[in-house]
Amino acid sequence: MKYHISLILIVLLIISCNKNSDQGTKITMERAQELIVKNNHQLLLDTKAFLREIGSKPSREILLSKTKLLREKYKTNEWTIAYFMPQTFRNLNGAPVPEIEFEEGTVLDAQGLQVLEELVLEDKLNYPEIERSVKLILNNAQTIESYFNVNTISKSQIFDAVLLEIHRLSTLGIAGFDTTIPEWNAKEMQIATQSVVDVCALLQLNQKNHASPQIKNIKYYANELIDFYQKNTTHKGKTPNYLFVLKNTLMPLYTSVNHVRKEMGIPHANINYAVNLDAPNLFNSNAINTTAFEEFPEKIDMLALSRLGKQLFTDPILSDSENRSCVSCHNPELAFTDGKKTNESLSGSALKRNTPSLNYAVFQHGQFWDMRRENLASQSEDVISNKDEMHGDLKKIFSKIIQNTAYRKTLMQIFKKNETSLSSQEIKLALAAHIASLPKFNSLFDSYFTNTNASLPSDVQEGFNLFVGKARCATCHFLPLFNGTVPPDLKKSEQEVLGVPINPNSKILDPDLGRGRMYPYIISLAHSFKTPTLRNVSKSGPYMHNGTFKSLKEVMDFYNKGGSKGSGISIDIQTFPETKLDLSESEIASIIAFMKALEDRP
Questions:
Q1: pLDDT at 24
Q2: The dihedral of CA 499, 500, 503, 505: what is its sign?
Q3: What is the pLDDT of residues 41-59, one digit of tens each?
Q4: pTM for this predicted structure
Q5: CA dist 180 → 310, 410, 475, 479 (Å)
Q6: With b meaning 16 or more CB within 10 Å and e meaning fewer, what string describes 60-69?
């Protein structure tokens, strides 16, 4: 009898504990959502107050103060807005350039906080335009408040959103991507960091009722990061040690948040992110999921497919005359380029554009310099059929390949199809798989983050700090890919208008319209080209779409002058600042040393 009573008491105690646990979880989420709603409501109130004040035409100082306040309020909830409302996030804090929807062929005017910043910094204040900009911000703030008042969010979503925000701080934030004012960026980094710490502590403390060592670690690394930005508010004077803060605060902060998530038994949300949220840091070889960029059949042997692709890549059977293969123009020893300004056509004449590197091409949404093809599989068809490059017909080539016993057998084994079911699509997928297998992420710079005992030469360290800071290279060549694919979601690759001359000493703009040739009605795309990766850039010269610059030094000199406009070249639009960078010769040498440290090792 006593045994049965004890058993009943134990069962009741377990049920009671489970109820308390469930209640604790409910309270936790309610408090987390309350915090989010509170922060968003404050953004709404401050935007309304700003709008009321514009009618009196306040001074520039007041406008700047109010704009700074809105940016800071937005930063308290950036992690939630970006994750749950990506379109609103883009409207609220998108780059101050037109947004282009290529599928619909439409151009969306730039709006949001970065546009407002530009307006209040212009020589002549345009109050009607400033008012219009604030009204658009108000619309978005109202949308945000409505969303979080009616939608319930989960712990999995919160932790994933926080992890992605730390990625954002580690890539865009550290580079000052959101604002041209370093002091503002320093403050915003502190606010955004504190916001993710607050929600992590809130969730974990309510679950465990005490602070775990990992929560203490989160607070420690966050305080270190905040302290860094309190001491380094500008790019003037001594270059801040961004390398140190990236490795010793941001990456450990990310790891600590993941530890807390695992401690609490919270799985990731069921979403296929481009970023691998379980990778220990940005520079691991598995930090980015290739499948987010290139689609391959499910349950296929990717190793076998890439091996087949490598074999086809070196086989001249892909050209009509069978005297040119892919490797003829994409030499593995030269980062899969050819070392020439432009290669030659089959008839011996110069091709129009420089041969781009294929090393990390898989991580681009848009292939070729003009990004005219979405992925690697579709790219191969263009190259093979181009009359100047390989002048082949993919259907005829496939017929030749399928007649080859070894190729036919391999294709049937990999794709688990009979001969009659195979097509040229499998050839394109094989070539794409080979190119997708090329990234190594094993450079000297990568090993500095993945190997605790690794070190970097002093000039490489200085070069990285200049790359992120004074030279502002990382606002176009985003970490960790160092190309134009925008982190942390990596769903979009950017193009830039540089205004490249026909030769290094010329004031004449290269006439190639780039992406603008396909979209003549979009003025902002005239002379625009993809932002290529800087990984293995030391092997991939000459540089730019026309191969006009022979060395990295010539490229750096071009940027140091302020690009085309700073060099006196006539162009309507240039998508990066035309002001001189004022880099010294030794600083340029350090940046080049850093770029050389991005070279993959054997």
A1: 44
A2: positive
A3: 999 999 999 999 998 999 9
A4: 0.92
A5: 45, 54, 11, 18
A6: eeebbebbbb
